[in-house]
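Recap from last week: sequence in, structure out.
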Amino acid sequence: MLEISKVVPLWRTIVFAFVGIVESFCWVAYGSYQIYNNPDDIWRGALSFLLATSWLYTVVRPIARPTATSPQDMFALYLALLSAAILQLGGVLFDHSVLEAPLPSKTTLFGLIANLLVIVVLLGMVVSMPLDIPSNRVDVKEIVSVLS
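Predicted structure tokens:
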């Protein structure tokens, strides 16, 4: 009988869920602030709420279906969030350097940079996870000696 050991490290689930919930709360707070501060531009706040809902998926997914291998759906979502974070921060810097628009507050800049760094760390965690786990019929020591 083929038996595969699927030991899911709890610390990864905790990190994915905790970071996702903190990011989600931050985006909801930022969106609420944007809607309160500028009620004419609802789209900016709505965009923050959409980002918060995408971060909520990263909270629910590792809890509902924990895996010992790399979650490809979360990898794709983190890549999409990384591109969005790069575009957000790059847009702010572009507007400042080319269009001579004033920089946003230091808190906003800190939040954008922290968001980018958190996503890069989470992507690093997903990339460092194994893609597959050998069954009990395979000697793990032999894998290392055959490949090297």
